[in-house]
């Protein structure tokens, strides 16, 4: 290659690189003029080869990132499955403990209720018996008071 051809080739390569960077970095409104400059140039085929190479490079980078994140995703799902199994075991233990406590509580409540009802019955029976004794107690109290009063006046 002659020095002028080499220089032109370098300039063309630099121009293609600039156009590729511009395509990658700008919004879609500016793509039209950029692509027109490629089609107006003489190295259209060479630019397409560079564009294909750039696309393949980006595809490889995307694939690497996806593989990396996919492995992290798989690891996360595996951990979640382990946690789910442990959570299910824990849930079953909580349900079992709750059932036992409810049953034990029923027995305790039953015994406490039985004891309280017995006390209530005994209290009611005592009140009934004392109520029956009240007239006699009043009579003996009155008699005793009468004797005390008589004894006081005799002295």
Automatic annotation (TrEMBL):
Record-annotated Exocyst complex component EXOC6/Sec15 N-terminal domain positions: 50-135
A cellular component term, taken from the record's GO annotations: exocyst
Residues folding into a coiled coil are none
Q: What Gene Ontology terms for biological process does this UniProt record contain?
A: Golgi to plasma membrane transport; intracellular protein transport; vesicle tethering involved in exocytosis
Q: Name one Pfam family in it.
A: EXOC6_Sec15_N
InterPro entries annotated for this entry? EXOC6/Sec15, EXOC6_Sec15_N
Highest taxon of the lineage: Eukaryota
What is the protein named? Exocyst complex component 6B
Naturally occurring in which organism (per UniProt): Erpetoichthys calabaricus
Instruction: Write the lineage as a comma-separated list.
Output: Eukaryota, Metazoa, Chordata, Craniata, Vertebrata
């Amino acid at each position: 290659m002659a020095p002028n051809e080499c220089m032109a080739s370098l300039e063309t390569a630099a121009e293609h690189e600039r156009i590729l960077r511009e395509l990658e970095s700008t919004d879609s409104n500016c793509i039209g003029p950029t692509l027109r400059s490629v089609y107006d140039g003489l190295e259209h085929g060479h630019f397409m080869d560079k564009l294909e190479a750039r696309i393949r490079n980006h595809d490889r980078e995307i694939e690497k990132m996806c593989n990396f994140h996919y492995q992290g995703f798989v690891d996360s799902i595996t951990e979640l499955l382990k946690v789910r199994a442990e959570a299910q075991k824990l849930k079953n233990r909580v349900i079992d403990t709750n059932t036992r406590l409810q049953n034990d509580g029923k027995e305790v409540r039953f015994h406490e209720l039985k004891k309280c009802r017995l006390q209530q019955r005994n209290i009611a029976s005592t009140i009934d018996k004392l109520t029956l004794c009240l007239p006699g107690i009043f009579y003996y109290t009155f008699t005793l008071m009468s004797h005390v009063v008589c004894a006081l006046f005799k002295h």
